[in-house]
Structure formats: structure tokens, C-alpha cells
Design a protein that fits this description.
- The N and C termini lie far apart (about 60 Å).
- A hairpin with a 2-residue loop joins strand 2 (about 80-85) and strand 3.
- This protein has helices spanning about 5-15, 15-20; strands spanning about 65, 80-85, 90-95, 100.
- It has a domain at about 50-110: Nuclear Transport Factor 2, Chain: A, CATH 3.10.450.
- The protein is α+β, with helices and mostly antiparallel strands.
Length: about 110
């Protein structure tokens, strides 16, 4: 059959896995690997908490996290919202500003 040589040549023309890793190699550009920040996959290492559970956050001092989904956090519900306190994220009652829970370990790797 004349079809078999065509299929063989088509397969040989496909890029190998190594070639697929660097798409600009054939242009003469150098390919690099971006280093990844080392962080445990299962749990984020947390230091001491900047505020305790039950603390009332003063109005205007801390910022509310507006795009929880972007940071990998579950959607806010049942009257609580997320607040940033230093480098941590907390679930806070929206009306009373009482800290309910520390949620930093639930945030994705793009949380500052």
C-alpha cells in the first residue's frame, strides 16, 4: 500500500517530547526553566498568627479580599468575608468584624 510510507513520514515529522518543551529552540533562542518556589503540596507552613480568633478587626485598618477565587479560596458565604491581615488571610464576620478562622493554608500558591 502506498499509504504506509506516508504515515511513517508523518509520524517522523512530529516533534519529540524534548522538542515540545522548548518551542523557540528552532529560532536560535535559548530556552530556560523557570525555578519554582518550594512549598509543601499538602500544607502551607504558617508562622505565628498576627491576630487571634475572636478578635474584632477595627474598621479601615485591614483590607477585604475581593477576588477569593483568584487566590484559590472557597467562595465567601453565610455572612463572612475574607480579610488580609499582614501576610495572612482570615474569615471574618462581615457585620461585626469578628475573626472567625485563619484561612491562609487554604489559599493557592499565588497568595502573597
Amino acid at each position: 500500500m502506498t499509504c504506509k510510507p506516508f504515515i511513517f513520514m508523518a509520524i517522523m515529522a512530529l516533534p519529540s517530547a524534548a522538542d515540545a518543551q522548548c518551542r523557540t529552540a528552532n529560532t536560535g533562542a535559548t530556552c530556560i526553566t523557570v525555578p519554582q518556589r518550594e512549598r509543601p503540596d499538602t500544607e502551607r507552613t504558617l508562622g505565628p498568627a498576627p491576630v487571634e480568633i475572636g478578635t474584632v478587626l477595627p474598621r479601615g485598618r485591614y483590607t477585604m479580599v475581593m477576588n477569593a477565587k483568584w487566590y484559590g479560596l472557597p467562595p465567601a458565604k453565610d455572612g463572612w468575608v475574607y480579610f488580609r491581615v499582614e501576610d495572612d488571610v482570615y474569615r471574618v464576620d462581615y457585620e461585626t468584624r469578628v475573626v472567625l478562622e485563619r484561612a491562609t493554608s487554604e489559599a493557592a500558591a499565588n497568595w502573597p
